[in-house]
Design a protein that fits this description.
mainly alpha
């Protein structure tokens, strides 16, 4: 085999391998028992939580791994019906975003994301957005705030809780010594 032919074949094989890798669905980094998720859905939830609580000089939702928390809570603590509502709401969230905003939520700018979330929250009568989408978004918003307000950073830096572990429990103590 000639050297030019060999180099061309190597270049073609590496280019083809790189292109094929981009065509394969991205795998999720968190393994769940009951909810099948893709890497794109994991990215969607990560970006949604980061939009709700962005990183400033204080850690944001990405830093606190809020998406992993929400997926784990939905997988472990929700009924099968709620798990189905969660996954269908997540799909509806991205589909409606694509139809209303022209792009998937992950690809929107921060301002456009805020505009989309404002549209969802402004739909009080439920005519513009499907119920499953609003159920999903409301649950994600509550869980994001819950994860943030129970994080060690929040409790130590904002609430000034100095002791995160309660003092040693003493069951039998004479009343006179208390």
């Amino acid at each position: 085999m000639k050297r030019r032919t060999a180099i061309r074949n190597v270049v073609l094989m590496t280019t083809g391998a790189a292109l094929l890798n981009g065509c394969v669905d991205k795998k999720a980094t968190i393994a769940l028992a009951h909810i099948p998720i893709t890497g794109e859905e994991e990215d969607l939830l990560t970006e949604l939580t980061e939009t709700i609580i962005p990183k400033t000089d204080f850690p944001g939702a990405k830093d606190l791994k809020t998406a992993d928390f929400i997926f784990t809570m939905a997988d472990d603590c929700s009924s099968p019906d709620d798990q189905k509502k969660f996954t269908s709401g997540m799909k509806a969230f991205d589909e409606v975003c694509k139809s209303k905003m022209g792009s998937r939520f992950v690809k929107l700018s921060y301002d456009k994301r805020g505009e989309y979330l404002g549209m969802i929250e402004g739909d009080k009568e439920g005519k513009e957005f499907p119920e499953e989408l609003k159920w999903f978004y409301g649950g994600v918003k509550r869980s994001t705030i819950w994860n943030f307000t129970t994080s060690q950073q929040y409790l130590a830096d904002i609430r000034n809780v100095t002791t995160l572990i309660p003092p040693k429990f003493q069951a039998c103590v004479p009343v006179a010594s208390v």
